[in-house]
Known about the structure:
- It contains 6 helices and 5 strands.
- The chain is globular, with a radius of gyration of 16 Å.
- By secondary structure, it is α+β, with helices and mostly antiparallel strands.
- It has a 5-stranded mixed beta sheet, sandwiched between helices.
- The chain has a domain at 5-9 and 53-138: 3-Layer(aba) Sandwich (Aminopeptidase).
- 36% of the residues lie in helices and 26% in strands.
Amino acid sequence: MAEPRYRRATAADLGAIVAMLADDVLGASRETASPAVNDRYRSAFAEIDADPNQFLCVVEEGPQIVGTLQLSFIPGLSRNGTKRGQIEAVRIASHRRGGKLGEAMMVWALNECRARGCSMVQLTTDKSRQDAHRFYERLGFEPTHIGYKKQI
C-alpha cells in the first residue's frame, strides 16, 4: 500500500469527498452523493478554498483518495488570545477503515494546527458515534464541553 499523502483539496476532488461524507448512517441521510456534484457543494468548496483560515484536506494512497478532513484555524481573544484548530468532517473510505489511517490523519492534523500557531485543537462528533468517541479519547482528546446546534 502506498504511503498516505496529504494535500489541499481541489474542485476535482469534490466527488470523492462527498462520497465519503455520504458513506455512513448519518451521512447517508444528509448528503447528496451522486455522480454529479451539485452547485451547493461547489459553492461551499469555493468559499472554503478562498479562506486562508480553512484547509480542506484529502489523503491519497497512490492515485486514490482515501480520507478527508477540514481544518479551521480560529483566532480568538479568550484563553489569552490563543488560536484554536477545529477539526471537522473526518472521513475515511470504507475499504480503509480500521487500518490506522484515521490515527495518521489526526497526527497530521495536530501537526498542521501546531504549525499554524494553535495552542488547542477541538472537534465535535455526533453523540451516536460511540466508536469515534473511543477513537478520539484514545488519541488524548477529552470530552470537556457540551455542544448545542439549532437548525435555522
